Structures are given as C-alpha cells and as structure tokens.
Amino acid sequence: MITDTQRTIHLGVNFVVAPAPSMEPKRVFLFQQRLAEEQIDFDHINRAGHQAIFVRRHPSTLQVQVGPVMPGAPVGQLLMVSAIDLADSAATAGVSEKLFCEAAETATELLREVWPEIQQVVSRDAAVRLLLDSGHDHAFQYLWAERFAQPEEHLAIFGRSIRGGGLRVVMGPAPDEADPKEVEAKIESFLAEPRQLWVETQMRWPVAISAREMNAPALIREAARFATDEVIQFINASR
Predict the structure, then answer these.
(1) What is the predicted pLDDT for the residue at 85?
(2) Is cis: bond before 59, omega within 30 of 0?
(3) Which helix (H) or strand (E) holds 171?
(4) How far apart are alpha carbons 27 and 166 in whole angstroms?
(5) Do 9 and 83 contact (CB within 8 A), yes or no?
(6) What is the DSSP letter of 91?
(7) Which of 53, 129, 197, 203 could form a disulfide with 46, with the two C-beta atoms 3.0–4.6 Å apart?
(8) What's the CA gap between 116 and 212, in Å, rounded?
C-alpha cells in the first residue's frame, strides 16, 4: 500500500437534536442568510418536504441538511457532508478537512442561534472515507493474499471471478472512554478503480449532551484520526 497517495473523499457529521427545529420559512431564510453572512453560500436550496437542504458545488462540495428526521418527529437533525464526485474523472483532489471543519462549526453555531429552543443533542455521528493506492493491480487480491495471508485457492470455492471485497469491523466503546462511542471500520477494494483501497470509518456517540456542547470539528478529527492511524496500522499489521 502506498500511504502517501491517501486522499479524503468524504467527510460527514450529524447531530440528532431535540426538540426538532421548526421549518417555518422565516427560520429557514434566517439560517440561509446567516450562513451567507459567514461566507458560506449555496448554489441550490431545497425547502420541499420536512427538511431544508442546502447544496454547494464550488469551490468545494458541501451539503447542509436541517429539519425533523421525519414528518412530525419530535427530534430533528443537522447533517453536514462534503464529498468529491468519484464519477468525475477530473476529480483527483480530496476534501479539505480544515475547510469542512470550519463550515461545520459555523453551521452548528447558527443552528443554536436560529433555533434557540434546541436544548439537547440525542446522538452524534461522524464518517470519513479515504482512497489509497494499494500498489498492486487489484486491491482485494492485495488484502486477501498479502495482508490477511489467505490462500488464493480458497476463493475458487465460489466458482466465479472475484470483482472485489473487503473487511468490516464493528467495535464497541473502549473501557476507559469518558464519552463512549461505537466505531465501524470498512476496508475494501474500490470497484470503479481496482488498484484503489477504500477505507471508511464511522463513529457514533449515543450519549446525550447539551446543545451547548456541540463540537463538530472534534468529531470529524477523531474519526479522521482513527481512519488514518488505527485502521491504516491494522492494514499494515495484518499478515
């Protein structure tokens, strides 16, 4: 695996909040206006349905979604995602963690400003996805034979060609965690580009906190650190 080819292709953070934010047009407009005042502009805004979805394509992709998790639900969400379009052959760069953290922090501050009635964060989650060059023609073959030391003939049991595959690891909280979290890591070959390894880390914090404690950058950085440290170390250590 060629570690210096690593690029971040997806960053996401989500807060489930109570009570659910009201989707009155004046509140949605104020949220949009305040974002623009903070230099966060959007190309498209969809106010249909039970949520407001703000989408920006340039200079970097960003989506902010706010509203009840479903119509009439007592809880709502603030979801923020930045990702590159892997179908775009020109998309060779990655997502900027710094810029996303700045935007996510601003959006959480404005959520509290526009909807001051929100008092509690019921749960939090963050996701990070990376792509790395395996250094081999086929990333799954590299994982299977070289990193996990499995005989290639075992795959012949399926009686068909193998396009790709990987490993999923689901972990509970660590014994000494002050803020317990659940972690899921995926290590797979990327089907669209067989040389590439797809690494994904998802973290979920199920313990409720005060809305004043929302800290999007901390969640993103922790998920990113786990992906680039523990998960990469696990791949390199597997023999």
Answers:
(1) 78
(2) yes
(3) strand 166-171
(4) 44
(5) yes
(6) -
(7) 53
(8) 10
